[in-house]
Amino acid sequence: MTLVQMHSRSTSTHTGHRTASDAMDAAGPQVWDDMTVEVALSVMTAARTGHLVVCDEDGQYTDLVTQARLTAVRKSSGYTDRVRLRDISDDGGAFASPLTTVAEAEHAMRHRRLGALPVVDEHGNALGVLALSR
């Protein structure tokens, strides 16, 4: 069985320079890296989200996958229904510290053309996700 975890939204109300911790949304569904692409797409559909936070067997953040990325993997010539999220991992990809300023995070997201950026603490736990406004 593959587990899915949810985290609640930060309630921090600091003034001045807003940090990633102040601005992030709940991490949304967190899934284990042994989940297949097919199951991950089903979880996304059920959760009505465009991304999933991927964790290893210790619950540590490893990647953020999007619906577009999973769909592209599924359409590739080498795809089988046994492909797992760990097989397509970006080895951690980009993430922000809870203390990263919103301006720094926004700059990194625009520079790297990311629609979402996970906020990860010093222990490797995904706390939330920052998303660019459309």
From TrEMBL:
Keyword Nucleus annotated: no
Disordered as annotated region, ranges: 1-21
SUPFAM superfamilies: CBS-domain pair
Organism: Streptomyces chlorus
InterPro entries given in the database record: CBS_dom, CBS_dom_sf, Diverse_CBS-Domain
Protein name: CBS domain-containing protein
Pfam family, one: CBS
Record has Mitochondrion as a keyword: no
Source taxon at top rank: Bacteria
Record-annotated CBS domain positions: 24-82, 88-134
CDD domains: CBS_pair_SF (cd02205)
Keywords: CBS domain
